[in-house]
Amino acid sequence: MKPAAFTYHRAHDVTDAVGLLTDLAAAGEDPKLIAGGQSLMPMMNFRLARPSALVDLGPLRRMPSMTALDAEAGTLTLGALVTHHAVETATLPDGFAVLARAMRWVGHLPIRSRGTVAGSLVHGDATAEWCLLALLLDAVVVTEGPSGRREIPADELFHGFYATAVEPDEVVVEVRFTRPAPHAALSEFARRHGDFAIVDAAVALDLDGDVTPEQVSGGRVVLGGVAPAPVRVPEAEAVLAAGGAPGPELFAAVADAAAAAIDPPNDPQVTAAYRRRLTRTLVADACAQAAGGPR
Amino acid sequence: MTTTDLPGVPPDVDPDQPERGERPATEPRFDGRRGRWVGASIPRHEDPRLLTGRGRFVDDIALSGMLHAGFVRATVAHAAITELDLTATREVHGVVAAYDAADLALGDIVAVLDRPPEEFTPTAMPILARGKVRFVGEPLALVVAHDPYAVEDGIEAARVSYDALDAVVSEETALAPGAPAVHEEAPDNVLLDVSMFDTPGVDEAFADAALTVDVTTRSGRQNALPLETRGVVASWDARDDQLLVQTCSQVPHQVRTMLARSLRIAERTVRVTVPDMGGGFGQKCVVGREEIAVAAAAQRLDRPVKWIEDRREALTAGFLAREQRYRTRAAFDADGRITALDVDVVCDMGAYSCYPFTAGIEPLMASAEMPSVYRVPAYRVRGRAITSNKAPTAPYRGVSRPQYVMAIERVMERAARELGLDPVEVRRRNVITEFPYTGVNGVTYDPGTYLESLDLAEATIRDEGWYEAREEADRQGDRHLGIGFCCFSERTGYGSEAFAKRKMTVVPGFDLSEIRMDTTGSVVVTSGTMNHGQSHETTFAQIVADRLGLDVARVKLRQGDTERIAYGWGTFASRSVTIGGSAVALASERLGELLCRIAAHLLETRPDNVALDGDGGVVQLDDPARRLPFEDIADVAHLRSHLLPKDVEPALTATASFDVPGDGTFSNATHAVVVEADPGTGEIRILRYVCVEDCGVVINPKVVDGQCRGGIAQGIAGALFEEVTYDGHGEPSAASFIDYLVPTATEIPDVSIQHLETPCAFTANGAKGAGEGGTIGAPAAVLNAVNDALRHTGVELDTTPIHPSTVLAALEGEL
Amino acid sequence: MRDPHLLALTVNDEEHEVVVEPRRTLADVLRHDLLLTGTHVGCEHGVCGACTVLLDDAPVRACLVFAVQAEGSSVRTVESLADHGELSDLQQAFSDHHGLQCGFCTPGFLMLAEGVLAEQPDASREEIREGLSANLCRCTGYQTIVDAVHATACARREAAP
């Protein structure tokens, strides 16, 4: 389980990284970026991924913007090299506290110490917590490529089964989360703690605090593990939008709507019926946790 | 340090305490003596080096000029090899050599039982595949290169073409009429087929039964999964005229024997040594074809060659275990007493028969021991080993016992349910209580605490309030608690007599020990057993220290070197402390006698007027002021031998062998588990785990606890998590730790352990084995507890591992 | 050797320079180039944690870091824990609690535990258990490892001013 040979190139800034990617590709190489490497390296060790050249973004950790977490006016901006662990230990505004809480589901400390938020998004695993959170909180992935910067909203990012809208010659510069959700939670089920989820669910509730008792007036429901890419579930969100008192009855209705709406994969290890059943459990659980508010 | 300073010292056991039951009619060995060290949780001798990164594992060995090896492996399960072209491999940068079967021309590994052809069919395991491949991962060619990275480049460059054959992937496909044959020698895919016992009265008992239960239990294919994968470094030593094979094996002498045969060289010219070993659990107690191929390459190239199995290989091409199916029919009378047992066992042994145990090991173990801890008046069994296009199997910790215990324990639970009795009560009515007990299987069980352990485990669960908790959960309605038990015994000291009954042609059993004292009064003792986590360096030293009256720090154990130990059977089947530990005890006693003889001569007194003083010396009994420390005696024995008695040879050495007589000894235990089934996910959480065990004299309580806990963790792994499945083409499902679900600290519960001690009468130290029990009891206990949690659903699960989706479907009435 | 790189890194306060192929993992460089064989390799895909080391004080899988990525970094391995042969408090606790049997996973658990305790000095036993679930042990059933780390955490808390 040793990787195939590759050439190694350190990028010194974003422009340099883009230049290296472009030049290597022009020279017939098949370059790939590496930051934390926690998704890429296992695949390379199995030789399931075999880039002929690696461009290392590691030296960019010296640039403050690449590791910064900035919360400002309802937006949280994470530099491209912010690690899961940095988010886990950051003090975030209420609207983004769900991100820190969700980090305990991301692998284990040694993985979180090194793996990056942007890397996880670009890897595009359908159950990756960051992919769900991106859809939940309207993330915008900012990339730089040969033709300059562009912004990819989360709902255009995931193209299914480890495929994303980020082009091979583009470098993620930052990820902006633009929709604060003070009443949000992520819940998941895996056979072992720290594993990739079989199904995971992220929920954000819009709570109308002007009325007493508090009423749900809308929200988001995002699922992983039920399709080749993480998905929002409009049918479940419609139940939230129809409103009601936050409680088991409403949450069960949301969960049922989510379970009914999906068409999950069916494989010998995990059947579609089981994924559907987990969806019901996890959506209801995430709703209940979300209603509990920031903790 | 004295014993009383040490944590975890068990209460003193009165050596005069009467034995439960009678001793078997074999020569009594254990005299009930306790010393200063045995029974104490002393710190492990192994720990300092392992904690500081100074252990020496096989991959830590680096020899000058060393090359690295890897294997081109089959990517299909069953196929004729139409092309194997290593031309491109040999051209890869860094590759030094590449060999196929014809290049190395090695002798096959053939494991044989002394049974008639209708019962056993020997099959050959070539070192590298010839003509056809029989499982995904089978080695086809060996690639040797300057570093492991280049090895993999070379493996990738190999060209292999196949003509695919239908794969045999299950009992059904193996035994179907016209099924493809995995081995020409066994056209029906059956390697062993024995019908045993068929004692009088089986059919009559079923005819007269108040209740007949019929249970089919299955257990998934599991990987023993030592965290250190297999590996070997082989080198030719011209000065010694020897091939030095440093390998992580539980059975170094058997590796040497097979290596010499396969390479067709004198056994003298092979030396096998074993460095620190990162677990084995049985996977390393058979001879691997890779070890032999690498040794052959080192011999050919006259360079050291190292092979370290990677995890993908370990998961797909290493020895697996456990895939068994039992159909158990049991007759009961109206009082819940079992009257007959009729069993059909099929064990899927995979593509090859392992050396030295053969593919018969699992069904023979199951057939011989199936009645377990119960009084079964009439018994019939058919045991079969089938071959399939899956990775071959080795005897994994427990060997069939986790499976047959699961089968019989399911029978007890089923009978209790049918008869409306408490499952513990049904066990009580059937469990063996008088010893020695000779069962319907012809096996004599030495004294144990079958009923006592059951009672204590149940009382513990009851006293802790778990029955009330279960009732409360029932009342609430949305929580599903279950309580499960498993009562079992395990034969631990298999001597040569017991193994010979299996009709092995290679019969393990005895072990040897040699002890030497140096001029400073320290001793080195050898054993043919092979420590790989069991703490032999500590526990054997405790045994020796007590026998000699020597501080335990002055005892060093040496194992794993075929040059130092004339022959040995290594470590498996919980045999080390019982057999190896007895041999070191006897060798120590002989050395003690020698020291006393010399001391008496030097003190100018009668030999019966001296004794070991328990503090590193020999004392004159009628004048305790006259004492000789071992150093003084050793000084004479080595440096002033002219002072020795005329009939005593110089130097201080003694040897001993030990073999357990008759049917051996049985450890026993009861496990009790409380689980909760999650109604939203089907996840099973273990809320409480209690183990009451009896392994005879406990040499080191901390070590025994560790063996129990580790074994239980592996048993839980088999019950709830781990399985290698194969698709219809024979492709294995689990090639990484993403898919092979080894449980972590969050899945394995704390385990509370209580010890009962019934000293074994015929091991020299009173100990029975403790290595496997945990693994044996856990699957049945967990499965029973899960079924108890599901009792309101009417569903009974009889297959492990238990998937949460199955539990959820049961809870939702979909099964 | 394709694309050799001269690599400088500090391991256990000692500076090393070594020429490596870029594909060489940090685990292999530590073990086979620097001969620090205390760090073990158990899966090479980041699950078992036997190769856990501290990289710039954070616990990482050395099999999931290319050595070239560690240029200029500081690495701590199990060999750094004992002081002139005297076991550290954590190592001693592992021995006291029988937190190791075969010892193969042990260096990884020690380095993971140091990482967890640095991160959560006030960790409860259950938090420690969750942190230690990062690594695999096949011998102990984990209970005594959790005990050892928890005992160390408690002792360090008591000793702290």
What is the rounded distance between the termini of chain A? 43 Å
Query: What structural category arises from helix and sheet content of chain C?
Result: alpha+beta
Q: If classified by CATH, what would the architecture of the largest domain in chain C be?
A: Roll
Report the sheet-strand fraction of chain A. Answer: 25-35%
Can you tell me about this structure?
The complex is a heterotrimer of chains A (about 300), B (about 800) and C (about 160). Chain A has helices spanning about 15-25, 40-45, 85-90, 95-100, 110-115, 115-125, 130-135, 235-240, 250-260, 270-290, and strands spanning about 5-10, 30-35, 55, 70, 75-80, 140-145, 150-155, 160, 165, 170-175, 185-190, 200-210, 215-225, 230. In chain A, about 30% of the residues lie in helices and about 25% in strands. In chain A, strands 4-5-10-6-7 form a five-stranded antiparallel sheet. In chain A, strands 11-12-13-14 form a four-stranded antiparallel sheet. A three-stranded parallel sheet of chain A has the order 1-3-2, with helices on one face. The longest helix of chain A has 20 residues, at about 270-290. With about 300 residues, chain A is an alpha+beta fold. Chain A folds into three domains: about 5-60, 2-Layer Sandwich (Uridine Diphospho-n-acetylenolpyruvylglucosamine Reductase, domain 2); about 65-175, Uridine Diphospho-n-acetylenolpyruvylglucosamine Reductase, domain 3, CATH 3.30.465; about 185-290, CO dehydrogenase flavoprotein, C-terminal domain (Enolase-like, domain 1). With about 800 residues, chain B is an alpha+beta fold. In chain B, helix 10 (about 360-370) links the parallel strand 18 (about 340-350) and strand 19. In chain B, helix 17 crosses helix 18 (about 630-640). Chain C is an alpha+beta fold. Chain C folds into two domains: about 5-80, Roll (Ubiquitin-like (UB roll)), CATH 3.10.20; about 90-160, DNA polymerase, domain 1 (Orthogonal Bundle). The mean pLDDT of chain C is about 95. Classes of the chains: A alpha+beta (about 300), B alpha+beta (about 800), C alpha+beta (about 160). Chains in contact: A-B, A-C, B-C.
